């Protein structure tokens, strides 16, 4: 009797489809790492940052590093904040904002968003 339905604490492996424990980080069958299996539904909502929002924040509030905070790069954001009086973060933030707006979504998520 092979169980085709996963139990409450089980789910399907994303790679081989084998039923594995939800807590399992790596599928014991195929060895593929499971990326936050339980939060799969929220994947886009939680980790995906809006490129347009980040770009506009960079252009308008780049001097305060707001776009860096938005992207989860808090350490960088604080550096921007500390140097906002020099005017340099304003220029850098502006340029970064433009880069965000012109980058592809995939490139943006890969390169600029803190995971
Ligand atoms: Zn597997």
Strand pairing plus helix content: what structural class? Answer: mainly alpha
The number of helices is 6
| Unreliable parts | none
What composes the largest sheet?
A: 2 strands, antiparallel
Oligomer: single chain
Share of β-strand residues:
5-15%
Rounded to an integer in angstroms, the radius of gyration calculated over CA atoms is 20 Å
Helical percentage: 40-55%
Number of strands: 2
Strand arrangement within the widest β-sheet reads: 1-2
Ligand roster: zinc ion
Shape verdict: elongated
For the record, the count of structural domains works out to 2
pLDDT averaged residue by residue: 87
Verbal overview:
- The structure is a single chain.
- This protein has 115 residues and is mainly alpha-helical.
- 45% of the residues lie in helices and 5% in strands.
- It has a two-stranded antiparallel ribbon.
- α2 packs antiparallel against α5.
- Zinc ion (ZN) binds next to loops.
Annotate the secondary structure layout:
Blueprint: E1 10-12, E2 19-21, H1 43-47, H2 51-61, H3 66-70, H4 74-82, H5 88-102, H6 105-111
Antiparallel strand pairs: 1-2
Helix pairs in contact: 2-5
Zinc ion is lined by residues 13, 15-16, 18, 27, 29-30, 32.
């Amino acid at each position: 009797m092979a169980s085709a339905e996963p139990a409450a604490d089980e789910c399907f492996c994303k790679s081989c489809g084998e039923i594995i424990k939800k807590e399992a980080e790596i599928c014991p069958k195929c060895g593929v790492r499971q990326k936050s299996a339980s939060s799969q539904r929220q994947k886009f909502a939680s980790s995906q940052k809006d490129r347009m929002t980040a770009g506009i924040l960079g252009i308008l509030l780049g001097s305060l590093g707001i776009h860096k905070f938005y992207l989860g790069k808090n350490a960088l954001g604080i550096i921007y904040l500390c140097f906002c009086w020099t005017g340099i973060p304003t220029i850098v933030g502006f340029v970064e904002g433009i880069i965000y707006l012109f980058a592809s979504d995939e490139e943006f998520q890969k390169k600029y968003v803190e995971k």
